[in-house]
Amino acid sequence: VIIGNMGKKQNSRPKGNAVLSRWLVAQPNLLRKPQATRKPLDLRVCEQFLLHEARLLDEARFDDWLALFTSDAWYWVPSQPHQPDPHETVSLIYDDRRLLETRVRRLTGPRMYSQEPRSRTSRMIANVTIEEAERAGCTVRSKFTMIEFRRDSQRIFGGTAFHRLMQSEDGVRIAWKRVDLVNCDAPMDGITIPF
Amino acid sequence: MTQLTAGQLSRFVQPGRVHRRIYTDPTIFELELERIFGAAWIYVGHESQIKHPGDYFATRIGRKPVVLVRDLDESIHVIHNQCAHRGALVVATERGNVAELTCCYHGWTYHLDGRIKRVPLRHGYPRDFDWANPKTAMVQVPRVKSYRGFVFASEAADGPSLEDFLGHMTTSLDDMVDRAPDSEIEIAGGIFRHAYGANWKLYLENLCDAAHPIFTHSSSIEAALAQPEDAHSDGSGEIAIRQMRQNGAPYSFWESKVGIWTYPNGHSYLGDYHDDAKLVVAFNDPVFRDYIAALEARKGKGEAQRVLEVRRWNSNIYPNLSFMSQFQQLRVVHPVAVDRTVVHTYSFRLKGAPEQMFRNTISFANTVNGTGSLVLTDDLEIYNRIGMGLDSEGAEWIEVGRGFDSDVPDAHGGRRGNNSTSEVYIRNMLDAWVGYMSKAHVADHDEGVVGAL
User: Least buried of A3, A25, B195, B306, by fewest C-beta within 10 Å?
Assistant: First the structure.
């Protein structure tokens, strides 16, 4: 199976050292020592991870979702297209690890009026590509659509997500996540459920 | 459409209560656009948004699209964003720089003060067509005035001056600017745009409401109180969590340590509590110490101390502006429909202050004004729920009487609450509402149109 995949991917990629080396590090099977037990962060692993994350959010398992992040992770939803950083410009959400923990604690608490009634969400993830990769991890780009239904109306969010995924002893973890909404600068009602 | 007399309108506001209809009746909303947004001084924008000749900022006065523009001679105009030919919107993007304004439909082109500059096929128009008619233009809003960089415009050709309209609230605007060591501020760091499904008046009615945080924001207060300090923060989360914890101050605190002041024309501010010693950028913070040093270096010790002792939280200038000088926030209310409102919020950079202060401003903005903030989302929920609740045929009157018996006169011609949980600022806005609404002010050009028909 691995050999089959390798052949297919090599044929579909343009030549060039940068592309090749990027691809090689995304294929740790070729580089790692045989005794290593970690799962490689190849495209399939990344896709499976994103689907798992989306499922946790759709099922409102926010504590489990938080557990996917590293201890110094950040989670960012910019307010502007191509926003260069979260410190000099406001963001729809910018949580360092501490604030992300507070956000999740509030989401799972009993008296959050903006989640009375609770939202129901449904996410689709597609167009997953690995943008950068080293041995320790990779940056994954994906497209998403999230439908949110609450009270009596439905909203549709869509855009591009970037995940920095790291390998750890406990499995794949998110070092940072950036979500660029196509309508990030539109007037909108509050955002309570993370993307 | 039901006609409402001035007498009927003024009876909607009674001592300590207001009729629910002024938040739900589309007829009253249309009258508000005409008599309040069409008459009062409306905040339009800040001069830092149009620094250079040709810079423009497209916004709205009430529902009317207008353009704030800096002319080639540096003068400032507010012109209606409408082509004099067939009525199309001329300026289609929020910000930019242009030498002239051209309509995309037939190429009518305007000077930056709105006068016609060029018209294709001009020879085809009737010989007696009056090209010099000031209404054949991107029509200027008749009165435009800037107070220390804050640009206001009034659709009323006559009326109180901007300074008279602002009254004692000029001191709050002063505080926004005086806090900059270089006495100059600029809008920076992006915009939040919130929308909710209820009346525009509810927004300012919440911004000095010191009685709601402990209840409305309990979810974020409790989550913040339970947050361990050992979790990693780059500083931004720390600011957010501290602010959320402050929201949990008990009623006794708001009733003894915080004050609320109101002034003619519906203006108000909340003050006292948030002095700099209690803020995140407190005196023992090295960034704030650098800031004080910069302030003292530029303004002298005495003036620096005076500036730091001004203790204002939210200041509201009725009907469409709220700002907060200690974290350089500004919010503009845009009424869209009787049951739909959009609010834009901005941050300011203090010229001459340490860079890190602006980063703190951004963290603070994300916390209290962020679309996804743990705080604002519950405020938006409140506005939406009031909107839904007022559709009920239950209680006819909304109670705004808390503190009614204990309000006291203020030295600057206003009334202040005995403490900050008084709803005096809502009663004050409603008094202004009655004042505007019971004056059958109609702009001259409206009468002209009606007469011609």
Answer: A3
> Comparing C-alpha atoms, which of A124, A107, A116, A115 is closest to residue A159?
A124
Q: Which residue of A has its CA nearest to B191?
A: A90
Contact in structure between A88 and B359 (CB atoms under 8 Å): yes
Q: How far is A136 from chain B (nearest CA, A)?
A: 21
Burial class of residue B249 in the structure, from the number of CB atoms within 10 Å of its CB (0-12 exposed, 13-18 middle, 19+ buried): middle
Distance in Å, alpha carbon of A122 to nearest chain B alpha carbon: 19
Residue of B nearest to A191 (CA): B372
Residue type, B395: A
CB of B366 less than 8 A from some CB of A: yes
B360 vs A: CB within 8 A: no
**Per-residue pLDDT band at B77 (split at 50, 70, 90):** very high
Query: Is there a contact between B408 and B419 (Cβ–Cβ < 8 Å)?
Result: no
pLDDT tens per residue, range B319-366 = 999 999 989 999 999 999 999 999 999 999 999 999 999 999 999 999
Whether B347 and A90 lie within 8 Å, measured CB to CB:
yes
Residue A135: the pLDDT is 83
Residue B65 has pLDDT above 70, yes or no: yes
Give the number of residues written for chain A.
195
Tell me what the mean pLDDT of segment B170-177 comes to: 97
CA-CA distance, B343 to B320, in Å (whole number)? Answer: 9
Q: Are B357 and B372 in contact (CB under 8 A)?
A: no
Comparing CB atoms, the residue among B191, B234, B362 nearest residue A88 is: B362
ipTM for the complex shown: 0.93
**How many pairs of residues across A and B have Cβ atoms under 8 Å apart?**
143
